[in-house]
Specification:
430 residues; alpha+beta; Beta-Lactamase; Helix Hairpins; 4 domains; 5-stranded antiparallel β-sheet; 14 strands; 44% helix
Length: 430
């Protein structure tokens, strides 16, 4: 389609010679006048020539008008260009995805896979039919449904081998503006995987936390209600039974109080976990204070807490009350569960490891734990022996609190243990 466009052309004044050429009639008229003055007026020829040249110069200097010429031109206007993704750009687009992504042909065979897909699904080689490699009914239904309708399909993929994972899988046809999807012999589909594993694990942790907290609270409450009913009924006048039951009730109430205190402490720590503490703490003085505070428990368990640390102060940035809670929990656990070893060693040393400068280790010589329990010991309410933990007045939250406090201080924590060799906890601080 052509567009009529108006163009304005402006003609500028030409140079002197060109302007004289445009004034030939005027110059001829002046020359005739000069000849008349010479023939009939007796004017000298030399003066007549000088005068004529002056008149010619005057004519050459006269201003010329600016002439504007308007012309209408027919200018062809190109048709609008439809945005089309080039075929060789599709692999680059899939490669730029952060999640695993694959391009399938009409048969469901893999035409291209990005690096994330190659790492997560190494068996999905180029040219292999995806549904023959991943024999999942939901995946087969999504691919066939997308091929049949030309519309995207999505589902949640749950796999248990080699580890339990969840993914949101989306199968979408790759449509080109100039082609009909159903008539295209080279039609393709894009398959993407978005990991839901971490969200599922967080949701499971929250569910387990509520269930465990409810269970921990329900048990002592049930005991309290039972003993109160007994004291109001059969044991109303039995002084010995009343004294015994009141002692048990007090113990159960203290258990609930410790649990509530730990839950509140954990909540406060998580609320401020992103804020790094700015206080100044002397670790040597803090560790001495923690040991003194636990002397009663240590003597009752016949445990000797041995401190090994520099004589000079060792200062770190941190929240003093929270660091006190860390080492109180660790040393208290070592006293409770490492009583067979008779000693608990607490050592403070300097290190140089990726910005971490100080390490405090707490080592007991008790029975130790099996290796499969070690990674889970910092989970909330996780107990290796639930009954033994309750007898020792544990809430199952101590190491979880320790882990979150150390994370707030931008430190690291490691636990090492083998059956019969005791347990060692290392706290690394910047």
């Amino acid at each position: 389609m052509d567009d009529l466009r108006t163009t304005h052309l402006t003609r500028r004044p030409a140079n002197a010679l060109v302007r004289l050429a445009g004034q030939v009639p005027l110059l001829l008229g002046l020359a005739g006048m000069v000849i008349v003055f010479v023939v009939f007026g007796g004017l000298r020829i030399d003066l007549a020539m000088i005068g004529y040249l002056v008149l010619v110069g005057f004519v050459a200097m006269l201003p010329q008008p600016v002439v504007t010429v308007t012309r209408t031109l027919e200018v062809p206007v190109p048709a609008p260009v439809q945005p089309v993704i080039e075929q060789d750009m599709l692999p680059a687009f899939v490669e730029a995805l952060g999640d695993p992504g694959l391009v399938l042909d009409g048969r469901g065979a893999v035409l291209h896979r990005n690096g994330a897909a190659a790492r997560q699904y190494p068996s999905l080689q180029l040219g292999r039919v995806m549904t023959l490699v991943m024999r999942n009914p939901d995946l087969v239904a999504a691919i066939e449904g997308s091929q049949r309708t030309g519309e995207p399909r999505s589902f949640e993929l749950h796999e248990t081998v080699p580890s339990e994972t969840w993914d949101r899988v989306v199968v979408a046809p790759i449509r080109r503006p100039d082609r009909d999807w159903f008539a295209d012999e080279n039609r393709q589909m894009l398959v993407t995987f978005q990991s839901l594993t971490e969200l599922k694990r967080v949701d499971a942790l929250r569910t387990d936390f509520i269930a465990n907290a409810s269970h921990e609270m329900r048990t002592p409450l049930a005991s309290l209600v039972g003993f109160i009913d007994t004291l109001l009924g059969p044991a109303a006048r039995d002084a010995a039974a009343r004294e015994k039951f009141l002692g048990i009730m007090r113990s159960q109430a203290e258990r609930m109080s410790r649990l509530i205190d730990d839950l509140l402490s954990l909540s406060r720590i998580e609320m401020h976990q992103h804020v790094r503490p700015t206080g100044s703490v002397d670790l040597t003085a803090l560790l001495r204070e923690v040991r003194e505070g636990l002397q009663t428990q240590a003597k009752a368990a016949a445990i000797d807490v041995i401190l090994t640390m520099p004589k000079a102060p060792v200062t770190v940035s941190g929240d003093r009350s929270q660091l006190y809670e860390v080492f109180e929990n660790l040393i208290d656990n070592a006293i409770k569960y490492g009583a067979d070893g008779k000693t608990v060693e607490v050592e403070l040393v300097d290190i140089d490891r990726s910005g971490l400068k100080h390490m405090v280790s707490v080592t007991d010589h008790g029975p130790g734990v099996e290796p499969e329990h070690v990674p889970r010991m910092t989970e909330r309410f996780y107990r290796i022996d639930a009954e033994a933990s309750r007898k020792k007045k544990g809430t199952g939250l101590g190491l979880a609190i320790v882990k979150h406090i150390i994370q707030r201080h931008r430190g690291q924590m490691s636990i090492r243990s083998r059956p019969g060799e005791g347990l060692r906890v290392e706290v690394l601080l910047p």
